[in-house]
Amino acid sequence: MELIPNCPICKSEHTYHDGTFxxxxxxxxxxxxxxxxxxxxxxxxxxxxxxxxxxxxxxxLIKDLKLKGSSTVLKKGAKAKGIRxxxxxxxxxxxxxxxxxxxxxxxxxxA
Length: 111
What we know:
Blueprint: E1 16-18, E2 21-23, E3 30-31, E4 45-46, E5 52-53, E6 59-61, E7 65-66, E8 73-74, E9 79-80, E10 84-85, E11 92-96, E12 99-103, E13 108-110
Antiparallel strand pairs: 1-2, 2-3, 4-5, 6-9, 6-13, 7-8, 10-11, 11-12
C-alpha cells in the first residue's frame, strides 16, 4: 500500500492520489511528489481586501469591535503600527490605543 503524505499547505490528512499528482480536497492544492517542494513554510495572512500582511505592517480597523469582557469599543479607522503575525485563530498581535490585543485579519486592512 502506498503511503500518502499530508498536504504541505494545510497539513490535512485527507489527501488522495490522482494520476501523477497528490490532491488536497480541503485547500485544493496539487503537488507532484517527485518534484522538490517549493512551498514556503512562512505564515501567510491576508487582510479583508486580500493584501498579504507581514510583520511590521501598519493596519486600520474596518469596523467597530467590542472587546470581549470589557465595555471598551475599538472604533472603525483606529490604526495599529508595527503588527506581529502569530499562529492561531486571531492572526494579528498589535497595540491599539495603548492596549495589547489580538485581532482576526478579516477585520483589518493594510494601511
